[in-house]
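Attaching the record inline, Q. Sequence:
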Amino acid sequence: MSYKIYFGIKIMKINKTIVDNVYIKLMEDIAHLKIKPGERIDIAKISIDFGVSQTPIREALGRLVKDGLVVCKSRKGEN
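Structure, as predicted:
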């Protein structure tokens, strides 16, 4: 664990994972309506845009589903 001292206060350095960064970016995009309500989220496109594999995007989307910001719909039976 590493620490940095700021103005005499010991602050723990926080290391964010790729999933954390993707989660934050997606949340910001939702909040700023870059991803609009009801819009289908294209994991492959986000993967290219963010420069990461699809796995951390899926994990971040899972967190957003738990937070109630994204709804996961089955594609079964869609035309």
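The chain has three helices and two strands. The chain has a mean pLDDT of 82.

More tomorrow.
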